[in-house]
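Exercise 7b. Backbone tokens:
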């Protein structure tokens, strides 16, 4: 009986060893599955459909009431000037006026002896916003000519926006993701492998620059406001499963 048990145990040992060897052989000949990481690009150009002009008008007078009265007159002249050039009054927004006392340094024999009251300065910033880009762009160029009429005015450079930007972003994300998959498929095909399911995907930051020129990208994303014609781009980094054929 003892000898029989020895043969049984020995036989089981051979069977288990065979199973282990077979499993190892099978595992070693399974198609290897790894991942491949690619970066896709989405890019397009578009023209802004909204223009914003900001600036400031101001007036000075020794008397505060007179200074404010002059500011009011200048504001009305400015609105009339723009209306004559096709800019609607409703598109012009004036912020709260700001006033301060002006002081002039006093010197006696070259020595500073203090300051003297020199009157009041009252200023008011404004914003003009319009979808009629050509009209406002043209009128804004002429605004500084009001200085010839004694109006103290400063006008900042135009800022250009696109109201359909969110749709552009969604479209670019889809384009970049599709481009990433195409790149991955080409690499897999060239490597005699099969492209599997998507493991993960991450979108980069949006870069909105001038349509022409060599404007640099920013790690946190660019948002060009100075150019009417713009270029938008985004990248999508995707990782796919891949296995040998």
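Sequence design result:
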């Amino acid at each position: 009986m003892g000898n029989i048990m020895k043969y049984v145990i020995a036989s089981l040992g051979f069977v288990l060893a065979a199973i282990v060897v077979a499993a190892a052989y099978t595992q070693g000949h399974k198609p290897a599955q790894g991942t491949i990481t690619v970066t896709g690009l989405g890019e397009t150009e578009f023209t802004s459909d909204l223009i914003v002009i900001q600036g400031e008008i101001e007036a000075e007078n020794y008397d505060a009431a007179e200074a404010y009265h002059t500011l009011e007159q200048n504001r009305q002249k400015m609105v009339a000037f723009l209306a004559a050039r096709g800019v609607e009054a409703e598109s012009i927004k004036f912020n709260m006026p700001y006033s301060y006392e002006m002081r002039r340094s006093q010197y006696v024999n070259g020595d500073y002896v203090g300051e003297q009251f020199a009157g009041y300065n009252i200023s008011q910033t404004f914003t003009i916003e319009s979808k009629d880009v050509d009209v406002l762009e043209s009128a804004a160029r002429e605004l500084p000519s009001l200085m010839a009429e004694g109006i103290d005015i400063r006008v900042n450079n135009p800022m250009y926006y696109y109201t359909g930007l969110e749709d552009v972003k969604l479209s670019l994300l889809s384009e970049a993701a599709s481009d990433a998959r195409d790149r991955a498929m080409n690499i897999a095909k060239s490597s005699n492998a099969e492209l599997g399911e998507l493991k993960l995907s991450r979108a980069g930051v949006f870069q909105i620059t001038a349509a022409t020129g060599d404007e640099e990208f920013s790690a946190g994303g660019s948002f060009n406001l100075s150019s009417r014609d713009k270029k938008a781009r985004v990248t999508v980094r995707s990782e796919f499963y891949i296995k040998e054929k």
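Instructor comment: DSSP finds four helices and eleven strands in the chain. The two ends are 53 Å apart (CA to CA).
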